[in-house]
User: Fold this.
Amino acid sequence: MNFGPANLLFHTGQEMSSRQETRANRDFIVFSIGDSRKPSTWSNVPYFFTANLERRGYRVEHVDIGPARILQLAFDVTWKAYCKLTGRHTRYTFLRTGYNRRVTNAKIRRALHRFPTGHCVFMTFSFGAGPSRPYTLFCDQTFAQHIAYFDEREPDRLEMTTILAERKVMKASSAIIALFPEVAESLEKYHGSKVKYYGNVVNSATMNVDPQELLERKLNAREIVFIGNRKYKEGLERLGQAVRILNSRGMDWLTVNVIGMDHGDLHDAPPNMHFHGYLDKGKPEQARLYKQVLERSRVYVNPNPKWAAFSASCEALYLCTPVVIFPYREFQRTFGDVNTVGTALASNLPDELADAIEALVTDNNTWTRKALAAHAATKDMSWDNYVDQYLKDLAQIQGGSSLD
Assistant:
């Protein structure tokens, strides 16, 4: 009897299976709240992550699981007004509702059916692929951590529904990537070694800055920069007070660039504060202006007490720009003593902020030392290095080896 054709069929089947597996290992389905092809989504992180994968030759399917904008606005505006009227403090929004969860999970199921191969990456801790597919979660904080850190309180009943759902999503995941060390340590207690921390990243496609050339340009700079949206308005108001103090000391020659907010966001802003609004890196002219402002700036300032626009501060540090910020925990855990790469604020007093800015602007020796340290602390924080580490861990998952 001739078993040749059957044997050939067997091997052909193996080869087809192998090709499918190889293709699956070159595919990613990236789910994000917002379009991951746009830099405006979540501090540029999904954009640079997926762009790096695509540059390596991976095929990336981008799935936006953000809620319908009109429904989100209608609910959130009404709900916010109700909470203000009743004195209720909560972070429960349309995104966290059971209705949105059902709609989002339906979107995910449709995407999984449409893309039957490839590894799923969720740029959020709130949603996952369920038990049918391996998936990675990649985010900054869980909802519970966010409430505990920024509000210093226990979650309310409505918030707890999201927290419980997130815990199920995280338990079923294959890998969890945390952007910050303290967050990673906390999650590791519950989810073990599948929690990964790779350091942080500078949101730039290329890392080819010449620090010496940049230092020469910045030594005589008369500009400083604040970056942050309206969540950081408290810090902007404090900076406005400090600038008025500096102006009274004869430093009205200092230009203060504000990126992320408009003139109307600061009542009675000093005349030497220039507002650029939100600069979209997806638009070449705005991306150029963003980089040019950082390259011209002597100091990066964001005196918000608990968070100082971490991603923007990393970009500033890489471009030899010392920071003036409060020493919040995740920054210190990432970079060590703030005073090595800038000046750590110790109080909310505008006078202290003015003193810190004046010292860095007028003392060339101190500024140069800190500017070089700032660049050294971030020069290896590239997306190439970050994705390299992730892909090594992912290879273990796809090879059948667990991260647990």
